[in-house]
């Protein structure tokens, strides 16, 4: 199997959730992040959709031997060929971005809420890679915050959950409060 480049825009930005060694901050133009539910999974997840927008993320080289694990992780998503611009230069790189296909997507809701531990993992990654300004851009460039959020920190529902520092938890909580999210 050959290596491939992917553009991660959610939990893949948190390097602690995968073992890809070659990752670089990048921007993807022409897409926006959105919370969706897919009938292929029980809870809401981040996806992307074409839009007049741009999002931050990581370009990661996925070794061929790791493709089966990546495909399993992204089984509810379809890959799309994209070009991302690396942050440390004006270099553009070809990559794949994974999006829940419209035929499987629906808005999240009470039965399929957003999980706080998933949000925590994503924000932790954005904070590490892009700093607090990147976290602000993450919240601003993501649609679907009107869905309910379930506080699962005491009993994490997200398989890749990570412990947060008090500072990280405070940043997540402050942004969710500013968005006036509805708690499930």
From TrEMBL:
Domain Gamma-glutamylcyclotransferase AIG2-like: 6-102
InterPro entries per record: AIG2-like_dom, GGCT-like, GGCT-like_sf
Protein name: ChaC-like protein
CDD domains: GGCT_like (cd06661)
């Amino acid at each position: 199997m050959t290596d491939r480049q992917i553009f991660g825009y959610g939990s893949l930005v948190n390097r602690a959730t995968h073992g890809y060694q070659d990752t670089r901050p990048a921007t993807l133009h022409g897409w926006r992040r959105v919370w969706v539910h897919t009938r292929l999974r029980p809870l809401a997840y981040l996806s992307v959709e074409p839009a007049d927008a741009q999002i931050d993320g990581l370009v990661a080289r996925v070794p061929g031997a790791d493709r089966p694990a990546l495909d399993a992780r992204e089984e509810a998503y379809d890959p799309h060929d994209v070009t991302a611009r690396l942050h440390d230069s004006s270099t553009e790189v070809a990559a794949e971005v994974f999006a829940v296909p419209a035929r499987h997507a629906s808005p999240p809701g009470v039965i399929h809420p957003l999980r706080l531990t998933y949000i925590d993992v994503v924000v932790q990654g954005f904070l590490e890679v892009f700093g607090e300004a990147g976290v602000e851009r993450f919240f601003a460039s993501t649609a679907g915050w009107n869905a309910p959020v379930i506080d699962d920190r005491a009993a994490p529902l997200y398989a890749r959950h990570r412990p947060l520092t008090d500072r990280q938890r405070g940043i997540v909580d402050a942004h969710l409060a500013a968005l006036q999210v509805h708690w499930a």
